[in-house]
Specification:
Radius of gyration: 19 Å
Low-confidence stretches: none
Helix content: 10-25%
Distance between the termini: 59 Å
Largest sheet: 6 strands, parallel
Strand content: over 45%
Shape: globular
Mean pLDDT: 90
Order of helices and strands: EEEEEEH
Number of helices: 1
Number of strands: 6
Number of domains: 1
Strand order of the largest sheet: 1-2-3-4-5-6
Length: 161
Amino acid sequence: MRKEGMELEKSNIEFIEGEFVTIKQSTVRTVEGGHIELQQVGAFSIDGERIEVTQGASGILKGTDVSLNQSISAVTAADNVSVNFSFSPVTISREQITANRSAVGVMAAREIKSDNTSAFLVVANKVEGNITTLLDWRASLALGAIFGGLWGLFSVLFKRK
């Protein structure tokens, strides 16, 4: 489907594309467009300039400005990301991530602003706010050295002749 502006509610769609897309209480395999608003939607792939997801679940989000509110996203990649009361195992941003009371696995950006957020690993030039991390740069360096040493040891021990 392709239109300039469209609204869908309680639908099951494979692919939708449009400049302004609003979807509520539906499942969609792929969404592409300019301004995408999703409320209570399950989607596999979302690609757009401005994406707003409220109480939704998605596999891959890719866009310029992405906003997650009470949502789950497996991979989120954008220029600017806002994560509020949400869960995202991988969040990558070229510019800024704003996280508010969320759980993030790996968070990477140029600048991160946070309020009571938990993360496994944070990579950023500048971090403002309260983030609880499991690994800092020292712990991740030590973990990498341990895995590298074990890999080398096992490769020597189990070398084929």
